[in-house]
Specification:
The protein has helices spanning 2-6, 18-21, 26-55, 58-64, 73-84, 89-97, 102-109, 117-126, 131-158, 170-178, and strands spanning 11-13, 162-164, 184-185, 188-189. By secondary structure, the chain is mainly alpha-helical. The protein has one domain (2-189). The chain has a two-stranded parallel sheet with strand order 1-2. A two-stranded antiparallel sheet has the order 3-4. Strand 3 and strand 4 (188-189) form a beta hairpin. Residues 181-190 have low confidence and may be disordered.
Length: 190
């Protein structure tokens, strides 16, 4: 912001949306790895995932998810909780893409919060899609507009700067939607 204001800039290009459309978040990696493991090994895979969540040492998770920064203890706890929910598909997906779990929201608001009907019906509509397409559509529909872009809009409006988000342009999204883009190269999904 300061740089844009210091050069009297009025428009800033942002990389927001790139992780969502290129499956760059930890929940993409986690769900895709699980999807292929479960696809080939079925219920045995689910049992192993559940047991792994309970017994797997932290360094194994760091080996599986090659981020420059190590996963924090909070990230590891969330990942373990997610893996333990492997037998409840909706909770399993929601546990990674939501900022707060339903339990946390219930505690914060001091009232019982159930699973989001809107989110669950959206998952059910999109389950026939390949997992990477389903994840991307879900992120674009729920995560980007509620959290990422809202934060970006507020930040830029507060500083009188216009933000452009090329990764979320209709041309890019339409092109990706039409392509079979699960190409894995050196641990990256495109």
């Amino acid at each position: 912001m300061r740089l844009a204001q210091s050069v009297q800039g009025k428009v800033v290009l942002s990389g927001e949306g790139a992780d969502e459309i290129l499956n760059g978040y930890i929940h993409h990696q986690t769900l895709l790895k699980q999807y292929f493991f479960i696809k080939y090994f079925g219920i045995v895979a689910k049992i192993l995932i559940y047991i792994g969540a309970l017994l797997c040492p932290d360094f194994i998770f760091h080996m599986l998810f090659k981020y420059k920064a190590k996963l924090s203890q909070q990230d590891l706890a969330k990942l373990r909780k997610h893996l333990r929910s492997v037998f409840d598909y909706e909770t399993h997906l929601e546990s990674l893409i939501s900022v707060f779990s339903n339990d946390e929201v219930s505690r914060l608001l001091q009232r019982n919060i159930s699973k989001s009907d809107k989110l669950l019906s959206y998952f059910k509509e999109n389950l026939p899609l390949a997992p990477e397409n389903s994840l991307t559509k879900t992120d674009l529909r729920f995560w980007n507009n509620k959290y990422t872009l809202l934060r970006l809009d507020r930040l830029f409006m507060a500083n009188s700067v216009e933000a452009r988000v090329p990764f979320l342009s209709q041309v890019v999204l339409t092109s990706l939607k039409k392509s079979e883009y699960l190409f894995k190269r050196e641990g990256l999904f495109l």
